[in-house]
Design a protein that fits this description.
The structure is a homodimer. By secondary structure, chain A is mainly alpha-helical. The first copy, chain A, has 16 helices and two strands. Chains A, B: It comes from Streptomyces achmelvichensis.
């Protein structure tokens, strides 16, 4: 098992690939054991979702995602002076909640692809997507509460709070789809709920399991929350200008889904000729019957207008701004220097990633 | 507020209407306050589901169900020597989980009516049914965990276990729909998961919040589990032979839904000419294209065959058998005589109810 090197005292020295790999390697066996507890056919459906088997049930070495959350949960335990192992149930619980939300969101949003594969509702039907999502959510609480400690109860409470925010964010996301205008503030609030809250929980849960007090946990959550906002700003950039080969999504993915992401709302709020022209086009698109047959060029035109109106640059700056707040929050907690360096390195990674 | 009379030392003396009303009266304000925490539009959708408002948002005095679970949760606290108030967060959490499962099950099963009204997915769409179900589940944990005590953590763990069983039961229910034959044992296991587990939790959660040890809680759960099986056996009888005016369901409701409920599986397992004829008819029904246009008479024929094969009588006996096991389990716990009398009276009520 690759282990973080205590000599990595500055972010530049941290091997980010090894750090993410450590989180994945240490948490995946426990995650798989938890999922194996599900009654058939839910165990199989969940295993398909996690990429451990293909649609025919054959073992598969699927893309399990970047595994930022498990890495954070283990570092979280170390930040409180506990062993990384202390954070494992937290890492597993957060991954279970994250994947519960993916299963349900994909169904609600009608998304047919995730991580280069058909989504669960597409392969196994809507009922299984609902049911297995529910089961993963319940399992998340189970994995924590069976520890039977007071700290496990505190950790579960934080996870529950984060889950409620996740659900609030999805409710906002759905309601914004039907609205013509969404403000930058509303978009940031929604992204804070959908992405910030669970990353915040990932960064506090290991510490809480390691006995950290609430103030320490809250400060770590501030880092995680702003890291989440930086993460989502970058995601929004990749959703329009990302390389399809790297992201596994279509070109102009978020534009095809009419997503009111940060670059779009910032461009619409900016004013000026490009902003106005973009507003007219998107308003017409909302009523258009042949939006689905739009050419690459038509999306390229919209992307260019977003950029011209300043939406791309504003979102890049926002990612850097949230990154700075996140890193600054770390000053509020005493922790080993190499753990701090790794948390900073993870924040750096989040804003420069290409997928 | 009607309160249970400590002089009611035998089940025959218990005013069951007052007992159910007490559970409802004491828990509903806390339940409403919890639901009010949901962000719009989820608060409105949930309020519609609970029958507090109608589809247009006007206040409504809907049928909130029998409220057996809240009554049990308050008695549960009293069984452990605590005040009924101690059980309130447990009553609310159990109701939230119960209603989370109703919201999701109605969508998965395509049920358009519940308690004489259109279901949430029918009125507000599938996405809201998923989302609000998720929110109620999260809220259930929140209501317990914010108590911040060790016992609240224990109670949440029991609720999580019950929820996992609920989900297992729904998974079994769905898989049985696609199977030609289901054994009586499989049907009982499914009903134990779908109905027994949460009733069991309702009867232990108040005691746990009142500081009862695990052995006491487990014994109370045994009562609740068998009460649940008795409850479900009666439900299965009402699902075929119930009075539509009382149940709020169509005539032959479960037969119309091709439900493999206890009377059906017992009749199919019984052997003999009526059992065989029933098996042939149901096998043909499963392949029939005009099942939906079947007349009252065609369902009446099937119901008569189930009765002739002994499915109705077997299920009635099963209800009485489970009732007896439930009541017997109460002997394993020391509790005030009037609380025991009320638990017995609730068990009696469950098997004689008409709705």
């Amino acid at each position: 098992m690759p282990s973080a090197n205590p000599a990595d005292d500055t972010a530049a020295d941290v091997d980010i690939v090894a750090l993410l790999e450590r989180g994945r390697t240490m948490s995946t066996p426990v995650l798989r054991a938890a999922v194996d507890r599900l009654a058939p056919p839910m165990d199989t459906v969940a295993a398909y979702h996690f990429g451990w088997i293909d649609a025919e049930g054959r073992p598969s070495d699927g893309d399990g995602g970047k595994a930022v959350r498990p890495a954070l949960a283990l570092l979280s335990a170390e930040a409180a002076g506990a062993s990384p192992e202390t954070g494992i149930p937290g890492a597993v619980a957060v991954e279970l909640v994250h994947n519960f939300s993916l299963l349900h969101d994909d169904l609600m949003d009608g998304d047919e692809q995730r991580r280069h594969r058909d989504t669960v509702w597409k392969v196994h039907g809507p009922a299984q997507a609902i049911l297995v999502g529910d089961a993963l959510f319940a399992l998340a609480n189970e994995v924590l509460l069976e520890l039977g400690t007071v700290d496990a109860g505190r950790a579960t409470r934080r996870l529950t709070t984060a889950t409620r925010k996740l659900i609030d964010g999805q409710a906002q996301d759905i309601s914004y789809e039907h609205r013509e205008r969404v403000t930058v503030e509303e978009c940031l609030e929604m992204e804070g709920n959908k992405t910030g809250a669970l990353l915040a929980c990932a960064v506090s849960i290991g510490a809480v399991l390691g006995g950290a007090d609430d103030r320490t946990a809250d400060t770590l959550e501030a880092y995680g929350y702003h890291l989440g906002l930086a993460f989502q700003a970058v995601d929004d950039l990749l959703g329009i200008w990302g390389d399809p080969v790297a992201t596994g999504k279509q070109t102009w993915s978020d534009l095809r889904q009419r997503k009111k992401s940060l670059p779009v709302v910032a461009a619409l709020a900016a004013g000026g000729p490009a902003s106005q022209r973009l507003g007219e086009l998107l308003a017409a698109d909302a009523k258009s019957n042949d939006f689905d047959s739009f050419s690459e060029e038509e999306f390229a035109t919209r992307a260019a207008l977003i950029e011209e109106a300043g939406g791309r640059e504003w979102t890049s700056q926002e990612a850097r701004r949230q990154h700075a707040i996140a890193v600054d929050a770390l000053n509020g907690v005493e922790m080993p220097a190499h753990v701090r360096a790794q948390l900073v390195a993870l924040a750096d990674f989040v804003v420069v990633r290409k997928r």
